[in-house]
Amino acid sequence: MSLRFAVLSLLDIEPGSGYDLKRRFERSVNHFWSASHQQMYRELHKLHGEGLLNCVEEPQDGRPDKKVYSLTGAGRDALASWVATPAAAQKIRDPFLIQVFAGHHLSTEQMRAELATHLRQHRDKLATYQAQNARFYRRPAEQQQKLWISHQPLLLGIETEKTWIRWAEQLLARLDQEVEAQQ
């Protein structure tokens, strides 16, 4: 259900083709909601069929016509209604945390190696988020003002990654102490 509203939200900011939408999705919403290319196009067609999106075909030289989607009044109303509905807090579902929970079945070296792998991934994700954050602040001031609330999930993502990295670094330090104590 949330893909539907992710699409409506992105098109509320700016009309675009399926390709444009997928690129915007990958740079923003994809960090907290995933969807394949096929799912995105299916959702666009479904929303258009329900009268929530307009679709205008723009001719292109040497390529098929480009379909540019935008919200209808009904689409804006549906989005506004959904946004006003309280959302339930989500629980963390991370398989790695279950592995840590059962980590006493691994050697300290195995746990360290697994944790180091995840730590690299989270550092990479933080770097991606920080690059996106820098791009946001290169936008004109009026766009920043218009999109400041849409920017908040990215800021939460940055803080989440910083917290995860700090936790993992502390755990690695503790594992190092365990190794030293065993020697």
End-to-end separation in angstroms reads 54 Å
User: DSSP strand (E) fraction?
Assistant: 5-15%
Poorly predicted tracts of residues: none
**What does the main sheet amount to?**
3 strands, antiparallel
Number of strands: 3
How would you write the strand order of the largest sheet? 1-3-2
H and E string: HEHHEEHHHH
Shape: elongated
What this model shows, in words?
The chain is mainly α and 183 residues long. It is built from seven helices and three strands. It has helices at 2-13, 18-27, 37-49, 73-83, 95-101, 108-137, 141-182; strands spanning 16-17, 53-60, 63-71. It starts with a helix and ends with a helix.
Kindly list the characteristics that best describe this protein:
3-stranded antiparallel β-sheet, mainly alpha, 3 strands
Quickly describe the structure.
This protein is mostly helical. It contains 7 helices and 3 strands; from the N terminus they run αβααββαααα.
